[in-house]
Amino acid sequence: MSNSSRSVQPKVIGIKPVLLEERAPIETERSKEELVQEAEQAKEHAQLHLQQAREEAERIKEQALADANAEREKWEQERERVVELAKDEGYQIGYERGREAAHQEYERLLDDARNIVAQSKVQHDEKVESAEETILQMSFNLASHLMKQTLDERPEAFTSIVRAAIHEVKEQESVSLYVHPNFYYSLLQHKEEFQQMLDHQLDLAIYPKEGESVYLCILETPFGRIEASLDSQLNELRDSLFSILEEVRSSEGQSTLSTY
Known about the structure:
The chain is an alpha+beta fold. Among the domains are: 62-153, no CATH class; 171-229, no CATH class. The chain has helices spanning 27-89, 95-120, 126-153, 155-168, 181-188, 191-197, 230-258; strands spanning 174-179, 203-208, 217-221, 224-227. Helix 1 packs parallel to helix 3 (126-153). The radius of gyration is 41 Å and the shape is elongated. Belongs to the FliH family. This is Flagellar assembly protein FliH.
């Protein structure tokens, strides 16, 4: 059989099917899931720190109040001891010693107020600043209450305050002393003593005067007026204590900045 007679068979080209592999989810979807998970973890971590900060602030507040209560109980015990001692001795120990005892008691109460400031000051924490002021105010109020209670129980202590005020104006030509009616008659008994503190030729007049406080003590002279009332002295002390607190905070803030 010749080549020409051969039948030409068609060549079949087979096309293999192309199988597409199933790929894993694309990277962007997996990244979103990871970001959501990390965000949840960060949120939980922040909430945990916030709760810890709140618990720490509450602990500091409770500790500060506990310290103030302990100091108040200490003062109450000391006050009762002094009162009992005064009753036992009857203060029959002479005028000079009685005056010195009243003066020492007055100074001791002021020192207690200053000590409370030092004990209650908590450093370098904004959460404690309000607690510092609260403790200072509580301590000052307690000291003021104890001082006034002492004056009520021992009027001679108020006489010492008046005596010190007169000493400041002893060189004036005339002095007019204004006190509350509650103390007027008791102070009249000391007028001769007060007069001896001044020049015998000078005028000293004592007048009763109603006021908001029974611890009123005002002296008028030709050169001006002196406010020596207990409440005014306490207010000056309070302002001084809060000024000291602000100065301490300011100095601590500057010291903290210098360390960075």
